């Protein structure tokens, strides 16, 4: 568990992070979101002490991070940034191995870990192990950056706009991969973005920052249906909030007994997908693969605040 207590950072007497407190449970994915300059990066970097707090505390599993040497703390915490930040004169393998080497892992274990991570991120080890960063595409470099952050199997991973440079298709794939890997490894992940769609898609909980303050900290459905301030409402936008709400729930969660005509929808599809399919195929109800049905009436009821 990560406990952030009354964390403040002043620059020239002005609080750019202003008395922020929040708790992140182990294995949770929390997204920090807010407009440019709202203090997201500063808050994130105070967690691994790339920036020292002016006041307040960060506790990891009950231990105050101020009591550890900062460089040792950073070896325990994975960190990935926009534009990947790879060392240009090191190969992909050397980049990924940075922290395991600092921690003194034996060579065979490092090599195995590098290959395991490359495979996990769908980069053929034989092809990519010895490449230099300038011979990678933006998307590949980004994946190597995330692999490097995960190399020493950190319990905590901090990511600052990790998908900022990716085109929409690769971005969606990278997001899904990250979510999958994070769930499988049980990593606690705190991710900064200014993209509310990314926050809603990825976050177990979303922390909304405005002018250095934490204005709402809640699960995505709550943020969508009950924004705490006009700023949060503006940030979400109201145009497609019904669809965003539907996108949070898989069909399998609400399938009811019954029968319907036509091809079934996969159980893991979202309610948003189900609505699109109803509209596209002109049906009032869809069979769900594996059993049950989903009806337009149900979708209508679930697309509103409950
Ligand atoms: N070293 C510094 N000295 C003075 N002011 C700073 C410093 N670093 C950040 N700031 C200011 O602190 C505020 C918050 O910056 P921060 O980078 O945390 O915002 P952000 O929400 O991550 O923004 P963005 O989305 O643009 O990255 C900004 O107004 C910024 O100008």
UniProtKB/TrEMBL annotation:
Q: Which Pfam families match?
A: ABC_tran (PF00005)
**Keywords annotated in UniProt:** ATP-binding, Nucleotide-binding, Transport
SUPFAM superfamilies reported in the protein's UniProt record: P-loop containing nucleoside triphosphate hydrolases
ABC transporter domain span:
2-236
Q: Which domain of life is it from?
A: Bacteria
Q: Which GO terms describe its molecular function?
A: ATP binding; ATP hydrolysis activity
Listed name of the protein? ABC transporter ATP-binding protein
> Which organism is this protein's natural source?
Paracoccus subflavus
């Amino acid at each position: 568990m990560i406990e952030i207590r009354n964390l403040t950072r002043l620059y020239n007497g002005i609080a750019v992070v202003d008395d922020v407190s929040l708790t992140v449970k182990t294995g949770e994915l929390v997204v920090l979101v807010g407009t440019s300059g709202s203090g997201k990066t500063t808050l994130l970097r105070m967690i691994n002490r790339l920036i020292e707090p002016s006041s307040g505390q960060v506790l990891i599993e009950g231990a105050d991070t101020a009591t550890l040497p900062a460089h040792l703390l950073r070896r325990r915490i994975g960190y990935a940034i926009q534009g990947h930040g790879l060392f240009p004169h090191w190969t992909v393998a050397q980049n990924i191995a940075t922290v395991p080497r600092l921690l003194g892992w034996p060579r065979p274990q490092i090599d195995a870990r590098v290959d395991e991570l490359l495979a996990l991120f769908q980069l053929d080890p034989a092809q990519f192990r010895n490449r230099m960063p300038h011979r990678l595409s933006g998307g590949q470099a980004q994946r190597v950056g995330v692999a490097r952050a995960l190399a020493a199997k950190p319990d905590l991973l901090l990511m600052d706009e990790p998908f900022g440079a990716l085109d929409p298709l690769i971005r969606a794939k990278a997001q899904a991969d990250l979510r999958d890997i994070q769930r499988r490894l049980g990593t606690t992940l705190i991710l900064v973005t200014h993209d509310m769609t990314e926050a809603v898609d990825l976050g177990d909980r979303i922390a909304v920052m405005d002018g250095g303050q934490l204005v709402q900290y809640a699960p995505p459905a709550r943020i969508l249906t009950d924004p705490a301030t006009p700023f949060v409402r503006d940030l979400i936008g109201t145009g497609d909030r019904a669809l965003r709400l539907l996108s949070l729930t898989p069909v399998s969660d609400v399938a009811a007994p019954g029968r319907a005509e036509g091809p079934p929808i996969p159980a893991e599809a979202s309610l948003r997908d189900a609505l699109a399919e109803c509209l596209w195929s002109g049906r009032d109800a869809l069979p769900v693969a594996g059993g049950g049905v989903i009806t337009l009436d149900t979708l209508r009821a679930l697309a509103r605040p409950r």
